[in-house]
User: What shape does this take?
Amino acid sequence: MKYFLRLSAIFLLFVIFLLPLPAIAGSSTDVTPSAFSDFSPEELKNKDFSGRNLESLDFAKVDLIEANFRNADLRGAVFNASDLSNANLQGADFTYGFAYLTDFQGADLTDAIFRETILSFSSFENTIIDGTDFTLAVLEKWQVNQLCANATGVNSQTGVDTRISLGCK
Assistant: This one.
């Protein structure tokens, strides 16, 4: 019996490690619904999404310059390679979101929540982050340094100090 169990375990390991199944690639648009297929690129500029529930929507490669997301529910949303420069995200909840290579230059993130959000390689030049909560957000060291230069305040919803959430020294 021991011999059979050992032989079965070896066979299982052989199948798992030496004969892997092929991976099927997919994009974020294959996984999440496209939020703005009905809008032209020009209609998305200066768009007002304030107070809306936009949970888990895909904003990948979208030009949202000066868009208004004030108090919007953006939990789990994707802003992959999007332009949010000069956008208003005051009080927005972007918990568990994803914003890789996204431009937040000049955006107002006052009192926004970015808890456990992936923000790798996104730009935050001249961004207002008064009371913004970045607890457990994924950021590069250069991004943290960029954000710490302007970090102030305490988030009114979570009670977390912006500088502490970023790990500023």
In short: Residues 2-18 form the longest helix (17 residues). The domain at 42-169 is CATH 2.160.20.80 (Pectate Lyase C-like). The chain has one domain: 42-169. The mean pLDDT is 85.
